[in-house]
Amino acid sequence: xxxxYVSVGSHYVNGTQGGEEIKVFKxxxxxxxxxxxxxx
Length: 40
Known about the structure:
Elements: E1 5-8, E2 20-23
Antiparallel strand pairs: 1-2
């Protein structure tokens, strides 16, 4: 199962309130992405 839609401009993590829902055309992973690096 992949990502089908993204929410832009919403103040909520879940649901469709307060933003625009856009259908995903393509998922592009950044070549330098490292899921093991913490942003905190």
